[in-house]
Specification:
With about 450 residues, this protein is mostly helical. Helix content is about 70%, strand content about 5%. Belongs to the protein prenyltransferase subunit alpha family.
Length: about 450
């Protein structure tokens, strides 16, 4: 009886009496199928074809339990997929917003939390003070779910869900939040609030969940799936980079292998290479000696092998995919760590030997490989495409950058060898990029 009175008051807050009924239909669907993993917004004309394809005939579609409107199709739900008609989006959003605000105000009043709602809302909710906090807690979660499904940028709704969940001791609500945020990301893969909420959930369950490795693995899979659908999704890749801090050393090595295939198919997308950079930094961090900032002597042979494999792999991609800036940027990171970490150790005479690997030779072998790569990339072939010219520009810029890095690592002889092989670097850069001649004159004396 009391719940009925509360729902009647919510109904008065909507712009149209039918809006609240539509909202209830949506919330019934969400409650009956908690495993919905994809949502879409369709024009009303598309529902007939969708139902006919699903159920075999238009008559069966109209008689289906998933047909939620007597006149026109509004919702469609099957196989954990949900479709919402664009015709009802505005009244549905208005009803969800008012229902959420009313429930949120009551919940905060009952839990003695400050609220910024107006006096009219307080007066409307005054007669409902006898309701328990549990009832309004469920109302907040239910209405915020519908609201965020329609407007994923409502920070107030996300924060209210955090408030409710943070007071629970069970882990199941947190796992439900991962499912819900995945649903939001299925149609809004670049939603900052959804990704931020997901990081809050992972951070909350970290250290208490018995199978944290599985959660991190699924998070990584989700990012890769959404990155495939939404190109240059920096928020998704930032989330994956953030997860690196929760990876063990073995997981880091596994992620390096897993992400390699994706990177090969998306060489123009710098996001994956930035992710691999974070993995290498994590690997380097896990190898740091407990007594200082230097890499542990026992870790050098393995690190050298991993870095050498990445350098060779990047070299192969540079030759295969001509003129890709992301590949050269990734090589700068690899080269800098190679020269500064392993080169300094070789210069200082550290006794770092592997099975077939002597770190004392790293600078010499590294520079020999780089010179060979640069010689092949600085040659501009005669064709109708500009890729080879771009490749030469990137290679020349890489030579300039490398010439600034080597002297700090004691590789003076290697630097002199580069100058002998490449020739006049300033003249080369001016020839390739005459429009940047003032820049080259300022950088090279």
């Amino acid at each position: 009886m009391e719940e009925t009175k509360f729902q009647e008051k919510l109904k008065d807050l909507t712009f149209e009496g039918n809006s609240f009924n539509i909202l209830k239909q949506l919330e019934v669907i969400l409650q009956s199928d908690p495993l919905i993993d994809e949502v879409g917004f369709l024009h009303p004309s598309q529902f007939a074809a969708l139902n006919e394809e699903t159920y075999g005939s238009a008559n069966n579609a109209q008689n289906s339990e998933n047909e939620m409107s007597s006149g026109n199709s509004i919702f469609w739900n099957r196989d954990h997929k949900l479709a919402i008609s664009t015709e009802v989006l505005f009244p549905l959003y208005a009803a969800a917003k008012h229902a959420f605000e009313a429930a949120d105000t009551q919940y905060k009043m009952l839990t003695n939390l400050p609220t910024n709602r107006g006096k009219s809302m307080d007066e409307t909710a005054a007669d409902s003070s006898q309701f328990s906090a549990d009832f309004f807690e469920n109302e907040v979660m239910m209405h915020s779910k519908a609201l965020l499904l329609l407007s994923c940028d409502s920070a107030t709704a996300w924060n209210s869900r955090k408030l409710v969940i943070s007071k629970k001791q069970q882990s199941s609500p947190l796992m439900d939040e991962l499912l819900f945020s995945s649903l939001i990301l299925s149609y809004a893969p670049k939603s900052e609030n959804a990704w931020s909420h997901r990081r809050w959930v992972v951070k909350t369950i970290a250290g208490t969940h018995p199978n944290m490795e599985k959660i991190v693995y699924k998070e990584s899979e989700l990012v890769e799936k959404l990155a495939e659908k939404s190109k240059m999704n920096y928020r998704a890749w930032y989330h994956r980079c953030w997860l690196v801090s929760y990876l063990t050393r073995s997981q880091v090595l596994e992620e390096l292998m897993k992400s390699k295939k994706w990177a090969e198919l998306h060489v123009a997308d710098n996001c994956c290479f930035h992710y691999r950079l974070q993995l290498f930094l994590k690997l380097l961090e896990s190898s740091i000696s407990k007594h200082g900032q230097d890499v542990s002597m026992n870790s050098y042979p393995e690190l050298c092998r991993v870095w050498k494999e990445e350098l060779d792999w990047d070299k192969m991609l540079i030759k295969r995919y001509v003129g890709r800036e992301a590949l050269w940027g990734h090589r700068r990171f690899l080269s800098q760590c190679w020269v500064q970490r392993f080169g300094i150790a070789a210069r200082d005479g550290a006794d770092l030997h592997g099975d077939d690997f002597n770190v004392k030779d790293v600078i010499h072998n590294f520079m020999a490989d780089e010179i060979q790569l640069l010689q092949s990339c600085l040659t501009i072939r005669d064709d109708d495409f500009e890729d080879w010219h771009t490749q030469a520009v990137l290679a020349a810029a890489y030579v300039l950058w490398l010439s600034k890095q080597i002297p700090h690592s004691g590789g003076v002889e290697s630097l002199q060898k580069i100058k002998e092989e490449v020739g006049d670097l300033k003249a080369l850069l001016i020839k390739l990029c005459p429009e940047k001649a003032p820049l080259w004159n300022g950088l090279i004396y």
